[in-house]
Amino acid sequence: YVGPDGLSHSGFYCPRLTDPPGHRYCCQPSLDALKSCCSQLALEALTGVNLSSLASPGLLRNPLALPFVGLYGLLILLLMAIDLCHFCRTRRCHLRRLLPWPCPTGAHRQVTAEQLRARGNALFQAGDHGAALAVYTEALSLSDAAAERAVLHRNRAACYLKLEDYAKAEADATKAIEADGRDVKALFRRSQALQQLGRLDQAVTDLQRCVSLEPRNKAFQEALRALGSSMHEKVGRGAMSCTDSKVEQMFQILLDLDEKDADKKQKAAQNLIVLAREEAGAEKIFQSDGVRLLMQLLDTAKADLMLAALRTLVGLCSGHRSRTTAILSELGAPRLAAVLGVEHEQVSLAACNLLHVMFDSLKEGLQKDFRGKEDALVLDSSKDLKLLIKHLLELLVLEGASAHGRDNALNLLIKVVPRKSPKETNNSLSLWVIDQGLKKILEVGSTVCGSLGSLPVTENTRMSTSVLLSKLYEDLKSGVSWGWFEGHELPGKLRAIQTVSCLLQGPSDAGNRVLELEGIMDSVLSLCASVTEAHQLVAVEALIHAADKAKRASFITANGVNLLKEIYKHSERDSIRIRALVGLCKLGSAGGTDFSMKQFAEGSTMKLAKQCRKWLCNEAIDAGTRRWAVEGLAYLTFDADVKEEFVEDKAAMQAMFQLSEDRSVLYAVASTLVNCTNSYDHEEPDPQMLELAKYAKQHIPEQHPKDKPEFVKRRVRKLLTAGVVSALACMVKSENPALTNSCRELISRVFLALVEEAEDRGGVVAQGGGKALIPLSLEGTEVGQTKAAQALAKITITSNPEMAFPGERIYEVVRPLVSLLHLQRTGLENFEGLMALTNLAGISERLRQKILKERAVPMIEGYMFEEHELIRLAATECMCNMAMSKEVQEMFLAEGSDRLKLMVLYSGEEDEKLRRAASGTLAMLTSLHPPICKRIPQVTVHWLEILQALLLSPSAELQHRGAVVVMNMMAAAREVAEQLIASEMLEILSVLAKDKEKPRVAQAAQESLAHAVAYGLIKPNPGHA
């Protein structure tokens, strides 16, 4: 109450404990005095009221309540004492300096913390991250060991990551790292948290630390690569804003008419090339009237400015159909064809590249995200395609066009005219080219290099023409008038014979049909005896190309061998002599690899080969003449004696490898190497058929004694020592029209022979063989692609794929390997493809996704039912590694699928290798996808029997796999654990848990028993540590 002094005073009941019992009334004598307890008489005197006449109010304060208050206080003190004792019991080690009793050994406390950690692990695997977090927190309250607390903090960080509480995850991971700076799990989890918090630079630092501690961990490498890419994209978005200013700056320099500094303008043009390679820069150039400016640069006739303009236009046209159409409309096809035919070789090549890019853009359309808008703008590009091709065909016979411009036009036609195939059923463009340009193409093919009044051509022109005719042949052979070859005058005969040579090098069937025309073969033989060297040169080449087939070779052997010998002996020109020699080489090898068929006398073939090697090594002779020596060896190396001498001649091999840079000799070099490595197709004859042939007195081909495997292996080693891999890699890298599909197939065959022995594969990869095999496996003939893919598989099986195919190249290997799984492939190819994919699938999730994208999983599953045990095993091992992918795990839970049942049953097979692969798959699946654990008891009634057999197996690997599966199933669900414990599994696990000779098995068994204890299914054994 408030007293007269204005201050608040504590209230009270009367009587107070210090007052007499009669002072039951509250009195205030005056306004200036405080209240106090008083008697009845004092109150009556003060108030003037007779209280005797009023009813008694009774006692307001009973002293009997004091004992009950005391009892309540004692109860509170007792509870506080009990709580203090419990605290001292659990934390006595912290109070050991104050308390008299000693600190206990801690064994019981550590076991308790470990049990809680095991229970938390089980809850985390089951997906109950909140409960796991609570258990880890409780374990932290019971543990004071630094190492144990670091593990618990690390585990709590994993829980926080799952619960998306990234700040707490980062804090817990930091505590674990403070205890152990080399804890890669904690570092990795902190990097994940930092990445989600937006602190990418710190996340990269942690990931780099992880990679430095465990350089072979693929998960760390993939995470660092992905994080680096995201940071690069973030930086790139900021850099795009400055593109507009750069484009404007370059245009200001080029549009400044007062600028006399040519170097400054050239630098500006070069900068435009770089900007045009980016989409934003290309669009800015296009929208800023850049095409008109670039057209002015083309009209300057200055090579450097023309090159800059052409290369900038390449950037504008790449992958953009509408821009390409607009540029073609503004520049005009005649202008582009004229630039292609200029004398300056680099300008012509740049124009060829631009036209190729324009063809690709017009055919394939826009390959960007806004395809729909562009397709609406450009409906049909076939007219533009035909317009460009029309001007290319006209350029072929244009007298003012340069020789290399004509070659570039032929190369472009080779690239853009589609070859008839089951995939390319629409041959309308090829028919249009035949209708509009066949005569023009044949006219170029009939041109004799260096002759007066003829079109300017190079030594490679006829080969390019042959390749183009070969592509058109499937459509050409149905409707050709052979009147072109009817000419009785000498120029007409020369033209016809030169065209025959061109056809024989390309569509040989068409050339053979021409040779069957009346008078053609007689004209060839008569011109071989001509006194005019140019006529003789044309005729001898035609004769060489005509000697390919055995039937015609026998005709020429009877009618032209003596003539070729005379030319070889008496001609004064080496170019004619070597051609005659090649003709003799062809005729001498008409028997092929048949040792029993000899066209010439014994020793003649060796003499021819010796002369070919001599000319091949003679650098004083021009390369165009020396290449004919390679042509001769391509035929003579059918003879094993010639092969043996050739691989011993290092100078000849090196000279051939150097000449392989010439496009016209690629096929001959590849053929020679195929013969030396015996990589051509040859089937082992059926013994019964051999007996029948002998009985019928039929000719039986014989193998040369030096073509046996030990000789072939020795020749391959010598070729590898001489550097054959580098030569083949250079042949593949060159963008050469002479690198036809047939040539690619030959090179693929050689590569397959080179990697046959496992010890040679490392050297092949080191010299660039792995890189060269990838394009060979993706394009060419079906046989060639298969051979190259098989060579890739052999390398992938025995080498580290990441070393053999570094960077992004490893992802290009997947498609060729998957192609080996097709049903039309042989069993060996299937097996090697599966083995190679197994290695790739174990490297990273990105590779597994690539395999999934190529639709390989259904084929892998199909081979798991294969009768051949090795193929079945390889497929199961491949599936084991693929099971690390989430999509594959979901497949095992699909309704109506027997995938999981098959794996469980395979785990009980007699074949130990198959059991190991299948049980490994089960261990992987149950670890990564706990719902599978609940499904296993449902797929087959024998599941328990199979798991027990795995645990009782004498093989430690099988025991470990079985123990991991059981451990995962125990952790997944209580009902599954009850089924396991109710069987003999408890006794088996109890025995395995004590097996000190197999620590991994014992640890898995102990964790399984710990889960059973946590579920309350069994009681812990106090005597078991």
UniProtKB/TrEMBL annotation:
Keyword Glycoprotein: no
Mapped TPR repeat ranges: 184-217
Record localization: Cytoplasm, Perinuclear region; Nucleus
Gene Ontology CC annotations of this record: nucleus; perinuclear region of cytoplasm
InterPro entries: ARM-like, ARM-type_fold, TPR-like_helical_dom_sf, TPR_rpt, UCS_central_dom
Molecular-function annotations in GO: Hsp90 protein binding
Coiled coil: none
Major location (coarse): cytoplasm
Gene3D superfamilies linked: Leucine-rich Repeat Variant, Tetratricopeptide repeat domain
Record-annotated UNC-45/Cro1/She4 central domain positions: 456-587
Record key words, sorted: Acetylation, Chaperone, Cytoplasm, Developmental protein, Differentiation, Myogenesis, Nucleus, Repeat, TPR repeat
Biological process annotations from GO: cell differentiation; muscle organ development
Subunit structure: Interacts with PGR isoforms A and B as well as with NR3C1 in the absence of ligand, and with HSP90AB1. Binding to HSP90AB1 involves 2 UNC45A monomers per HSP90AB1 dimer.
Protein name: Protein unc-45 homolog A
Organism: Catharus ustulatus (Russet-backed thrush)
Organism placement in taxonomy: Eukaryota, Metazoa, Chordata, Craniata, Vertebrata
Gene field: UNC45A
